[in-house]
Sequence to fold (136 residues):
Amino acid sequence: MAQIEVESKLESLDTLNDFVHSVIRNSPCTEQQRIQIDLVLEELFVNIVNYAYPESIGKVQVECKLSEDLNQVIITFKDQGIEFNPVARKEIEIHERFERRPVGGLGIYLAKKYTDSIEYERAEDCNVLTIMKNLG
Fold:
């Protein structure tokens, strides 16, 4: 398992993407799946920046590993910011007219759509969000 710690600021997103790309490099990940992973990373990381640390910069630990057969990637975000459970957020009505939908929620919708599993827990005063995506 590989691990990195980045600051909770938007400028850290490229470092985070490079880190995950280095882990999945030798997997059967397709280009489309890599793009989906990048989108999910961006949506989830931006949520951490905006909601866990809205008025400060904190640290975010990210662990990334491949399953033994290399057919799954598991990515875990851990931060000590304000508690925020994106999994519990009410599902947006994607087919509702845009102007009738409340602001927010599209990123969580996309994260759920482009992963095979997404789980949240609050453990030891930390937000722990784990996503899993099948590859190949």
Strands lie at 2-7, 59-66, 72-79, 117-123, 126-134. DSSP finds three helices and five strands in the chain. The mean pLDDT is 90. The longest strand covers residues 126-134.
